[in-house]
Amino acid sequence: MGKLNVSQFGVMSVLYQQYSLEYCLDSLAANGFHYVDFWGGASHYCAFDTPLSERRKRVREIRKMMDDRGLEMSVFTAEQICLYPINVASSNPYVRRNSLDIVKRYLEDTKEFGAEYYFAQMGYSLFDEDREEAYKRSIDALCRMTEYAGDIGVKMVMEQLQPYECNLCYDKKTLKRLIDAVNSPYLTACVDCVAAAAAGETPQDYYDTFGTINHVHIADGTPTGHMVPGDGTNPLNDYLKIFAEKGYQGSVTLEINNQMYFDNPDRAVQRAARWLRENPYVESEDK
Fold it and tell me: What's the pLDDT at 228?
């Protein structure tokens, strides 16, 4: 039976949003992780807490902080959906233009960070707007993003979200619609196992739809909630078995993102690390 390797797994730093970045990185390293899925949000790093004149310096500081702890950035996941005023599919031309400018800077940051991927977002439509027009704006923005990503040599992945997060991309069909419309090697599929469960889908459905998966988000839930493995009811072992049988070699993000853990993220990550060590579909790093 094929297995995933524990070295493929990382943690999204969004879990530590109420702690310093230093605390976050120390915790991840102490718990045996090598990959960080770096959440671009305040107060760790984002377009809204770092002046443009200090951006390059801050990015290099963050990369050194990771290097010093033996950590690598698998993905730069900048906050873009609803929480922050970034929406590349907005019907407001100013918001859309400003959002694209921010994303271009984030793509440059991704290259400077040395991350494998930038985590693209498709934007969203207001629920009482014309959704087809929003799809057109989203596809136009994604095409502009992939063109710039190609110019500077940065790859992007994109996932489906949950319906309350985004009404443009919420299952395998809507994700495929966008990726196919853009038709660029610089934009490929990530599967979010929580959002898939919410849509009644499995990782196998995404392999059947896309053929190749380049990044994975996994967490527990009921089916939603982005919980520590074991705290929900999602069939996580079934998911890992699928990835193992497919010979998946890419990175996997433990996306633990629930307020119940925000006061003690280290404890949550300790439990997640123990779950990985004990999982029958995950082998130790020295295998």
Answer: 99
